[in-house]
Design the sequence.
């Protein structure tokens, strides 16, 4: 019974770790996309001048 509880808790911790890594990677991607969008806006504004 104790080993079953230990295995379940380890699986839950591993799942939480994988989910947090995936979410962090997606957020970094999102920040990069926003930065690229800002650069494109600045370039188009420079072309219009």
Sequence:
């Amino acid at each position: 019974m104790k080993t079953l509880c230990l295995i379940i808790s380890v699986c839950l911790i591993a799942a939480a770790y994988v989910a947090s890594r995936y979410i962090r990677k997606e957020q970094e991607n999102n920040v990069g996309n926003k930065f690229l969008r800002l650069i494109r806006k600045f370039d188009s504004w420079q072309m219009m001048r």
Notes: The radius of gyration is 21 Å.
